[in-house]
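Protein-L-isoaspartate O-methyltransferase
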Amino acid sequence: MLIRPRLAAFSRNRAGYSGHSANVGRVTADARSPQSADRLRTELVTALREWGSIRSPEVAAAFAKVPRERFAPEAPLDAAYSAQDVVVTKRDPDGKATSSISAPWLQAEMLEAARLTRGARVLEIGSGGYNAALIAEIIGPDGFVVTVDIDPWVTERAARFLADTEYPKVKVVLGDAEHAANEYGPFDAILVTAGAWDCPWGRLLAPEGRMVVPLRFATITRSITFVRDGDRLQGLDPTVCGFIPMQGAGAHKDQEAVLAGGAVKLTIEDGPELDIGALDRALVEPRTELCTGVEVGRGEPFDTLNLWLATVEDRFGMIWQDPDRDRDLVQTALRWYCPALITPHSFAYLTLRDAQPRATAAVHYELGVYGHGHYGAELALRLHDQIKVWDHAWRHHPEPTFSLYPADATVPNPTVGRIFRKRHTQLVMAWA
């Protein structure tokens, strides 16, 4: 059975989110011994097979051979081999992660989605060394791997670690991913390991190639596998994930409102400029509280709710809660990626409460809405109503499909869906 970190009522902290620091344990005397590393590597492969993240012998063999700890010397061995955690390798002066080694479950998912073959030409965007070594192991000595990063600290480190672990044929390129790999294409596979708002690399993809991109739209990220289908790229198997955002020409800065000294953060992609002072005041004023009557069971995913809200609401964004700073100002349904409707002066967000007891022993929660600010009641009612629409009409339908078109293409509007227009491309999300 495939186990993926998804929006679920019982979990407010998503292990596997690539912007979230790994849990770091104590270092013991034998923590760096070869025997310990070999054992943890074997256990990691076993766990990823059981979860369904590893599905092929080629990917399993790569994870069994490449020494992850050699690419993460700052992490204790158990943290380096934690299947659901990332290893943050660099932070900016504010403590924000700017480079990391992704969680193994997500690396395995993306490698499986790319369907790498022996002798393939592969581009990796966003470097660190470890993922490039996995790719090199899968495609063999006749393959060709290019890994690109904009940060010289990252590329120097990746090149050194790759050489030390006997993967010197991987070509490490310092440059802006928007154009740095142009001379090396076309590629049979492209794997992007940074949060991309746009996707300019379709021109580098071979006709039968596959491109795996964690693509951002309306503050949501889905890792989508794209394959060519005429004049478009068809998206397959969108997977909930999170990545450190792209830097350079491909960067796209969402609007952010950091409130209450960092205890709460609102994020929205576009729209009028947010009034931080007004939103800060709204946070501590009396709020609107609405119950929806919509219930979710413990562990039951409801991540399509975000997609539905992004379909129908230009004001859709996210609210983030820092439990170390929050003074019970908000009660979000999820710590990460909790949906919200946001205007310059007001906001409303999703919350949870225990549902009424049932005859069954299963634990259920009821989705609710809290609204803050002058227009908080209006936003809360809108969010409440769209939760009901999702529950009635779309909750049990297949997830929406995704297609990627060039920016200058004429794209018909989906009957139910939305077109996200970007600099190089147009992402179409359509509900069947």
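thats it. Residues 376-394 form the longest helix (19 residues). Residues 1-32 have pLDDT under 50 and may be disordered. bye
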